[in-house]
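Sequence only, no structure available. Ideas?
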Amino acid sequence: MKILRRLIWVVGGLAVLIAVFFAWVLWPSRPSPAVPPPSVSAPREPLAYEPPTYLPSNDPPSSPTFAPTAGATPEDCQAGGASTSAAPVNAASLTTLTWAPFGRDEIGWEIYAPHVAHEIQTACAPGSNRFAAALARWQGGHGLKSTGTFDPETFKVMLVRWHRSRPFVKVNGEGICPGAPSAAMLAAAKPEESYGGKTIQLRPGALDAYRRMVAEAKAAGVVRDPRTLTLFSGFRDPLADAARCASDNNCQGVSRTICSAHRTGLAVDLFIAAAPGFGPDSSADPNRLAMARSGVYRWMVVNAGRFGFVNYVFEPWHWEWTGEPMLPGVPINSLPQAGSGNPGDPLLTPPPTSSPPVAAPPPPKARPPSKAAPRRPAGS
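Reply:
I predicted one. Tokens follow.
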């Protein structure tokens, strides 16, 4: 009897399981609502847009302090994971490094500090731990040893990146000098927009972008001198440039070149600042340093790209608009080469001090023409 009862329990359990299974399979289910296929014309949710973050510069010496973007968290400039020795090395080399980044001797790299800080995305001073840590991360991400210390090798990699952001350099690298616009393709700046009332012409798009940039700079409070950001050079006629190269013999590719970006109507020279005794376009180191220390230049380094402008870092005043393509050009080696073969640049020499007149030396003997190939221009 005990065996029979167990058998009945087993058979009953199996019957219940079978009944549950069939009920689950055969029970009518509610059909899910049909989902219409996506329409190609259906409106899409716009992508979120975050405006560029303004990073104020804390590079020494002190300059006007700019408020960071609302809601942004200030950087802790003493924090960082770089070697503890990197920060003092950077602080010292900022004014003592002996090097030649553009083919002539320079001391210190403070002139380029605003660009370096913007490249590595920090607002902290070069002598801070945070700057060293940001530099170390950048170095590691670009195939360099992550030392956190600034050196010529690091700058060289940065300089290539900055040059490549200039379409004019890209075209030059292909051996082409861009074409010049006709008079009908140019627009004139207002007298109050030019330095000293000069007549300045630009392509209309570049002029409009310049005006919007200046308006925002004024709103940001970085324009304190009425001359600041006024134009002292825009479009330059290629024939006039060639004549000046020949007469001044200073088109060696750093501060002047036989193929100037100004021929495009897209390049501007702006009044940034000027050291005592220098003009706004003097490339003497004291003058460039005065510009690099100015609040308006640091604002430009961070913000000008939003308006389409890129800087030739050797010249803080020279900016090129990238908002429209350059015109078809000609091979660089087809241009007049006068003034491009001999080293030396009068603009690099500070103004002479008062001293007794010195008798002029006898004129040098004429030298035979050089057979060396002309140097490819890389400047403005």
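The chain has a mean pLDDT of 80.
Hope that gets you unstuck.
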